[in-house]
């Protein structure tokens, strides 16, 4: 049997010949592809009338979510209106614009040409004569572009009536054009008649090439056949015309698809021809041919009905199917689904990981459960997805988590307007900005690709959308951490925590679910004007619990360390009787304060500044000056240090005198009395600075 072209005649077996130009014409193919493209891109479409005159294809598009409407006003909100290949009148475009409805225009370019001619010629005042079906959508669209007088006829007889009835118009400038799918031989008759009757006539041959070719082929095949089977919608004007053409030559059956085959009789037919209208999908023609071939070649085995039953095992978009892997390529997996379609899974429908190697994930012979994503009956393929089926299972999990309040984990995959999207078990959960961070107004960008925990707040089962909250999950996690903290909290416990905030009176440190406060006086051994002099938000600090009040949930923290206490440092470095180089830091009427070590200043009483009498410390010393002193006393309890320049000088003088005496006595050595180290001067007045 040949599918296309003529086969050599076999006298024992009937032949079936399919006309080469059967099925979709260019304009219909373009419109169907446009509709499928929009639907697959997630655009909701409403078609102004069925996209094509084929019930199976209309059903298939409806399965993908397309709705059919009669006028722009019927378009549901959020839908894009698709203008089909037949085109529409000018007022429809105007209405779409007025209502602000988005639309996609799939008008066939050949039809658009007719509309343009009609609009331009009528604008010039010419009468438009249309050869076509008055009620056909294409003709209605053409009339919708005419601004003046027009007449429509579907046969030579009707044209004759019009010419008679509107005899005055015959003297006017007239234009003759045709519906693109008008019967070619009838057109010739009408054209010849019009040329004779209308005195000022311009003819535009607007029957499209696809139609002419199809009708010529059908006529030739019908002449050579005993029976013609014309496949296509009963509403399809061009299919009806094909059947008319064929009936002129042999017994002809017009069927919509293989399901109508059981109603036809092929007995005695040796040569069977098949043709199909411009809106008949290839898979229907293929199916008709296959069933006819099988029945005619094996009449004893199966009837049309039985063949039909088995051939209609098909799959549909959205269906779950079991499939066996037959081949694993680098970017695609081929599967057998047990139907007439060849199944395949593109890599991005199998995994989210663009670097994954499919051969490491799946092997030939593996059984997979998959979701039918798209069925292309023209090509006989079905695109399947594992990822989406997983996502469906994931959505069940998300819905369950909404009920059980389970905390889910996911990864932030996108920052979107108003929040972010987190992916969990293949489901994208929207997290509003107000629920994405602990504090409002925090930047979301740093969260991209980060792992997050969240609780599901809301699920829309129909729209398969879920809303989550990271903040709610954090609150819950904090509550658990808080309870754990209080179980173990005790004075003296040491923690490493992050500084969360600073106030004028101290720093708040996160201890893990609970905040404690370090009072400003606890931040340093030195005087501190503001906590920010010592700490910054985000610093990780080691703190210890100084005091806790579990009732009021208050925790006082200590931050200063004993080893940093300057009085301890002093104890390790100096003792009374030591000398030291110090810097004068302030002057008072009763003496000068000098810095011994950071955090400890000692007093040089005015009487201890010099061996001479000093009226005022400022007469001898100035701040910033470095002097050598003798540490004459350290009182750790009162935190006071007494220093003396005078005692040091006297000791030095005494030493010198001793040395001089040694020289004078010819080398005799006397044991020198120790220099008298002055007691710490009375520091009733401001004492050494407490730190
Ligand atoms: Fe266009 Fe001709 Fe088809 S006009 S829609 S290509 S029949």
Task: Characterize the structure shown.
With 691 residues, the chain is an alpha/beta fold. Helices cover 30% and strands 29% of the residues. It is built from 17 helices and 32 strands. Strands 13-14-15-17-16 form a 5-stranded mixed barrel. α7 links the parallel β8 and β9 (200-203). The structure holds FE3-S4 cluster.
Task: Give short descriptive properties of this protein.
691 residues; alpha/beta; 5-stranded mixed β-barrel; 30% helix; disordered N terminus
Topology:
Blueprint: E1 15-18, H1 26-40, E2 45-48, H2 55-63, E3 67-69, E4 80-83, H3 90-99, E5 103-105, H4 109-123, E6 127-131, H5 137-143, E7 150-153, H6 156-165, E8 173-178, H7 184-197, E9 200-203, H8 209-224, E10 227-231, H9 237-247, E11 251-255, E12 271-276, H10 282-297, H11 304-311, E13 320-328, E14 332-336, E15 342-346, H12 358-361, E16 367-376, E17 381-385, H13 387-404, E18 407-416, E19 419-424, E20 427-432, H14 433-436, E21 451-460, E22 465-469, H15 470-488, E23 494-503, E24 506-510, E25 515-519, E26 540-549, E27 554-558, H16 566-573, E28 579-588, E29 591-597, E30 600-605, E31 626-635, E32 640-644, H17 645-664
Parallel strand pairs: 1-12, 2-3, 2-4, 4-5, 6-7, 6-8, 8-9, 10-11, 10-12, 15-17, 20-22, 25-27, 30-32
Antiparallel strand pairs: 13-14, 13-16, 14-15, 16-17, 18-19, 18-21, 19-20, 21-22, 23-24, 23-26, 24-25, 26-27, 28-29, 28-31, 29-30, 31-32
């Amino acid at each position: 049997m040949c599918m296309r072209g003529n086969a050599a005649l076999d006298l024992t077996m009937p032949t079936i010949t399919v006309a080469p130009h059967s099925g979709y014409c260019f304009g219909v193919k373009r419109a169907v592809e446009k509709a499928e493209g929009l639907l697959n891109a997630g655009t909701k479409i409403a078609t102004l009338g069925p996209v094509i005159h084929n019930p199976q294809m209309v059903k298939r598009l409806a399965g993908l979510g397309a709705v059919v409407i009669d006028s722009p006003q019927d378009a549901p909100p959020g839908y894009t209106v698709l203008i089909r290949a037949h085109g529409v009148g000018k007022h429809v475009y105007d209405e779409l614009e007025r209502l602000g409805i988005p639309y996609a225009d799939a008008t066939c370019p050949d039809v658009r040409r007719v509309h343009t001619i009609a609009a331009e010629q009528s604008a010039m005042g010419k009468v438009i004569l249309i050869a076509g079906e008055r009620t056909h959508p294409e003709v209605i669209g053409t009339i919708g572009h005419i601004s003046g007088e027009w007449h429509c006829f579907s046969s030579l007889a009707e044209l004759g009536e019009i010419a008679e009835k509107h005899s005055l118009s015959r003297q006017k400038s007239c234009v003759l054009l045709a519906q693109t799918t008008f019967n070619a031989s009838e057109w010739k008759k009408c054209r010849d008649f019009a040329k004779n009757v209308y005195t000022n006539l311009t003819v535009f041959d607007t029957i499209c090439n696809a139609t002419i070719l199809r009708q010529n082929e059908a006529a030739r095949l019908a002449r050579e056949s005993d029976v013609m089977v014309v496949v296509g919608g009963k509403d399809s004007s061009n299919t009806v015309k094909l059947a008319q053409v064929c009936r002129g030559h042999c017994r002809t059956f017009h069927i919509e698809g293989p399901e109508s085959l059981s109603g036809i009789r092929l007995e005695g037919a040796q040569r069977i021809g098949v043709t199909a209208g411009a809106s008949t999908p290839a898979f229907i023609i293929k199916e008709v041919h296959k069933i006819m071939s099988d029945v005619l070649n094996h009449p004893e085995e199966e009837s049309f009905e039985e063949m039909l039953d088995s051939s209609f095992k098909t799959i549909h978009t959205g269906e779950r199917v079991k499939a066996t892997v037959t081949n694993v390529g680098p970017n695609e997996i081929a599967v057998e689904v047990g139907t007439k379609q060849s199944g395949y899974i593109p890599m991005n429908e199998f995994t989210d990981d663009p670097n994954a190697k499919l051969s490491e994930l799946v092997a030939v012979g593996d059984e997979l459960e998959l979701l039918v994503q798209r069925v292309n009956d023209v090509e006989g393929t079905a695109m399947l997805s594992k990822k989406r089926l997983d996502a469906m299972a994931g959505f069940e999990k998300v819905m369950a988590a909404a009920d059980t309040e389970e905390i889910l984990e996911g990864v932030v995959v996108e920052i979107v307007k108003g929040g972010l999207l987190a992916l969990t078990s293949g489901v994208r959960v929207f997290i509003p900005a107000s629920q994405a961070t602990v504090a409002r107004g925090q930047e979301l960008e740093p969260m991209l690709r980060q792992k997050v925990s969240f609780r599901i707040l809301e699920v829309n089962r129909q729209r398969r959308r879920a809303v989550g909250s990271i903040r709610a999950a954090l609150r819950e996690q904090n509550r658990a951490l808080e309870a754990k903290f209080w179980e173990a909290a005790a004075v003296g416990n040491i923690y490493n925590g992050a500084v969360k905030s600073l106030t004028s009176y101290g720093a708040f440190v996160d201890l893990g679910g609970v905040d404690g406060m370090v009072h400003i006086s606890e931040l340093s051994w030195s005087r501190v004007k503001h906590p920010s002099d010592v700490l910054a938000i985000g610093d990780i600090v080691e703190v210890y619990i100084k005091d806790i009040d579990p009732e009021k949930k208050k925790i006082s923290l200590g931050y200063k360390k004993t080893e940093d206490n300057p009085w301890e440092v002093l104890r390790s470095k100096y003792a009374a009787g030591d000398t030291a180089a110090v810097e004068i830091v302030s002057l008072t009427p009763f003496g000068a304060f000098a810095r011994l070590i950071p955090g400890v200043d000692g007093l040089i009483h005015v009487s201890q500044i010099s061996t001479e009498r000093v009226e005022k410390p400022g007469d001898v010393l100035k701040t910033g000056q470095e002097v050598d002193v003798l540490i004459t006393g350290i009182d750790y309890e009162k935190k006071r240090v007494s220093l003396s320049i005078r005692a040091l000088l006297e000791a030095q003088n005494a030493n010198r005198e001793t040395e001089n005496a040694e020289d004078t006595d010819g080398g005799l050595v006397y044991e020198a009395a120790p220099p008298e180290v002055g007691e710490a001067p009375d520091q009733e007045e401001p004492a050494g600075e407490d730190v």
